[in-house]
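Follow-up to my earlier ticket, as requested here are the two runs.
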Amino acid sequence: MPGPPPKREDQRRRRNKHPDGLATVTAAGGKRPKLPRVSPSWHPLMKDWFRSLKESGQSQFYEASDWQTARLLAEIMSQELNSGEPVKASMLGEFNRAAASLMTTEGERRRLRVELQSPQAEQDDGKVVSLMDRYKEKLS
C-alpha cells in the first residue's frame, strides 16, 4: 500500500470499508514454535534486534517460518556488520524491507491492520472518557 501508513483505529473519524474489499480472515496457526537461540557469532546489534523480536507484541503472530526468516536476516546482517567494511545501502534497504515483512515497524503494522495496545493504554482509556465527560458537563 503506497503512501503514509493508515491512522490507528482509535484515531479514525470514519470506519470505511477496506478499499480493496478485503476482510480479515482467520486460520488456525501451527503450535507455538520453539524459538531459535541467538547465535554467539552474531553481531551485537543483531543479537539485540533478535531478542527484541522475542519481546515484541507482534511476535505472538509469528509462525516457525517467520522465526527462521528473522534468524536468516540476523545471520546475513551479522556477516555484513562483522566484515569490517561499511554496510552497503542496498543491503540495509533489503534488511529494512525484510524486517518490515515481520511487522517490526509501527507503520507496517498499521498497513497490515495490526494494532498493539500497551497495558498502560488500556488503563488510560477510562481516564480520557472521564475527562471528556467533565468537559461536556462544563459546556452544558
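Run two:
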Amino acid sequence: MASPVPNSETFDQYRVIDNEQFSQHLTRFLNSKSDKGYVLNLNAEWGAGKTTFLQCWYNELSKSHPVVYFDAWKSDFSKDAMLALVDCFQNQLKNPRSVNKKFAKDLLEKSSHFIRKTAPSMAVGYVKHKTGIDSDESLIEDFNETLGLDIAEKECGDALKEVLKSLVEQRKKVEGISEFKSTLQTMAASLIKSLEDSDTPKTYPIYILVDELDRCRPSYAIEVIENIKHFFDTKKFVFVVATDTGQLQHSIKAIYGNGFDAHSYLSRFFHKTVTLPPPSTEQYLKSRLTTIIGDDFSFSDLYITQMLVSIFDWHNMTSLREIDKVIQDLDLAKISGKQFKILPLTILAVLKRLHSTEYAAFTKSRVNPYRRDHNARDDQDYLLKNNAIPSVTIGGSKAESFESILFYVLVGIDNSSSPSLWDSIMAGSVPSHNSTSAVGAVSDRYLLNPNGEASEFPSYMKVLELSGHFE
C-alpha cells in the first residue's frame, strides 16, 4: 500500500523547528525499552507541531523499523477504535508474501469477537468480508467450541443466542487477549523475516505512531488509548501516542466527572510522558516573514524581532498554528499593495483571535485594551497577560512596561512620526520623557509595502475582516 505519510515530510524541510536531534534521542531510548513493549505519551499543546514531528519521524524510522501511522481523526467516524486499529495494522504491516498475508488474516479473526461486541452490524460485515466467515455460522461455532456445547443453529433461538453470546464474549475477552497479542507478535516476526533479504531490511521494535487524538471526540480518544493498552501493548511493539495531555485530562473529566482523577487514570496507560520541545518563536517568525517582507527591512534591525516575539509572548500565544494564522493576516495585507504598519496590525490580529470583546471595543470605539499607567487601580478590567515580559527602553527613553508599549502602538496607528526621530533612536538620544514618540517611530519603521499608499485605520479592519473568510 502507499505510504500513509508523504515522503517529502523530513526534518530537513523543517530546520527552523529543529527537532531531529530530539527524535534521535527518543529513538535510542525507546529501542532500549522495547523488549517488553512500551507506550509513550508525547505531550504538546494543540498546534505545537505534533503532526509535523510524527510524520518526519515516521520517514526516519521507516529506514530501519516497521512503522504504523494511525491517524485517529480519520477513523473517528467509525465509532469503533478496535476496528480502526486492527484495520490499520492489517493494511500497514502485511507483506505481499503469502505467509504474512495469512498472519494478517489471523489477526482479523482473533480480533473479531472484540470488534463484534462494540459495533455488530458494521464489524460483522467487515470481518465476513475480510475472513470469509459467515456471522451466524461463526457465532454458533463459537458457542459450541468455547462453551463445550453441541447446539445446532436451528435449535438456537434469539433469546438463547443473546445469553450464549454474552458468555462467549466474556470468556473470549479474557482468553483472547493473549491470543491476539501472540498473533500480533507472529505477524510482526513474519514481516521482519520476509524483509531480511530485501533492499530494505527492518529490525525490531515495531513502531506505532498515533496522531490527531486532539481532534477526536473525547470518548473515541479515550477508547483508542484503552484499546492500545489492553490489546496492543506487547513485546517488541512501541506506541507513541501524541496528545495535548492537559486537554485530554479535561476530556476524561467531561466523561467521568469533574472529581475524577484524570492524571492517575492516564498514568495507567503510559509508561512515560515526554514533552515535545517547543520551537523557537523567533526563528519561526524570521523564517515565515522573510518570504513576506522581502527587502522591506532586515530582521537584523534592532527592534522588530524583539517586538514581535514579545507581542505573542505577552498574550500567551505560544501555538505555532495560531501564530501562523496571524502571519497569514500580514501576508494578506502585503498582497493588497497598501502600506501597513506591522506592529499594530499584528497586535490587532492577536486581539481578534484571543480577545474578541476587546477587539470589538477598539474597532468600534477605539477603547484601548492596554494599560499605560502603572498606578492604575488593580480592579480595572485589563487583559490577562504574561508578566514575565521585561520592560522596554527605546533609544534612551525611560523604561516602559510592555503593556504600555502595546498601548502606544495602537494609539499611533494613524499617526506619523518624524523621520529624524528614528535617527535619534539609533543614536540613543531620545529624551527620557518621550516614550510615546519613540514607540511611534519604531512602529513607523517596520512597514509592509513601504512605497505603497499609507493605510488608515479602516483599511486595517478590512484586511482582518477579509482574513476571517479564509480560516
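The only thing I checked on run two: Confidence is low (pLDDT under 50) at residues 116-127. Let me know what else you need.
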